[in-house]
Amino acid sequence: MTETRIIAEPGLPLVEVTREFDAPPHLLFRAHVEPDLLVRWLGTDGLVMTVDHLDARHGGTWRYSHRDAGGNDYGFHGVYHGTPSPDHITQTFEFEGMPGHVSLETITFEERAGKTVLRLLAVFQSVEDRDGKLASGMESGIHESIRRLDALVATLVDNLAAVR
Amino acid sequence: MTETRIIAEPGLPLVEVTREFDAPPHLLFRAHVEPDLLVRWLGTDGLVMTVDHLDARHGGTWRYSHRDAGGNDYGFHGVYHGTPSPDHITQTFEFEGMPGHVSLETITFEERAGKTVLRLLAVFQSVEDRDGKLASGMESGIHESIRRLDALVATLVDNLAAVR
Question: Is B14 close to A126, i.e. CB distance below 8 A?
């Protein structure tokens, strides 16, 4: 499996994303909690991402924004539930353009024969919230982010191999 | 409306609770974030509640436990998303007896003609999680907690009236 699977069943406030990466779980995890790595894949090629803060511990908060070519900023923030680890990251998520609409995300990194199956589960406060997110281009954004993440971890794996 | 409405539609990972109280929003809010008040209503008459910590701010964490007559402890913990206010409290919620199953709760306090409509929305990571919670007696626990909360805020309202 190398394609990205996005499951969004009609009438359920859930989105589930699954993807296999040719890299170990700890590299995928680092790409999620190290700001220098995160800005290299989350988002799309036309956006410049800035991480204001990211405190990877239980109760730690994070905030980042994406700036488009027109200079518009799109901010996001949330809180970690439990200390993030290569086993899982659980966090709240809020787009500041839609304040008051919060989702809960769980990301797991499962090692499988030297590769990693990444699974993201997002639960929304209503089916309308979930559908609105899908209508705003969530799926194409996920596909592009994951393509960039795949390229990033391939570089990290090559770097690891080079220093051995 | 004075009865408690609990909506849990089949096949949806959501539970919504609505109840009107004869008290202003700020008293209902205090009853949720002041440990001395919280222990007087959350739970059932047979349980002794202890709040380990409750830090009512964005990224603040909370933990409490209920002890039954047999000395068994039932722990719960979570994190606040956004600073809790009389408008709303948004928090994660995890029962330590079922680690890894996290829900997201939003509690709002709407002032209506001198009374307060409390609404709690809980979203779960799956329909199975929601159904398991219902099967474990969630509904009767909610009814008893709300009955106790109603009695508590009536006392607080009387105390306020007495000092005027």
Answer: yes
**Cβ–Cβ contacts within 10 Å for residue B28, how many?**
23
Q: What is the CATH number of domain B5-163?
A: 3.30.530.20
What pLDDT, in 10s, does the model give residues A112-124?
998 999 999 999 9
The pTM for the full model equals 0.95
Taking Cα atoms as reference points, which of A107, A61, A51, A102 lies closest to residue B55? A61
How far, in Å, are A24, A33, A42, A143, B61 from residue A149 at the CA level? 13, 13, 7, 10, 31
Note whether A27 and A157 are within 8 A (CB). yes
Instruction: Check A79 against B58: CB less than 8 A apart.
Output: yes
Q: What is the ipTM of this complex?
A: 0.94
Q: HSE-up of B44 (CA within 13 Å, CB side)?
A: 12
Selection from A61, A1, A22, A51 nearest residue A149 by Cα: A22
Any A CB within 8 A of B61 CB: yes
B81 CA: distance to closest CA in chain A (Å): 6
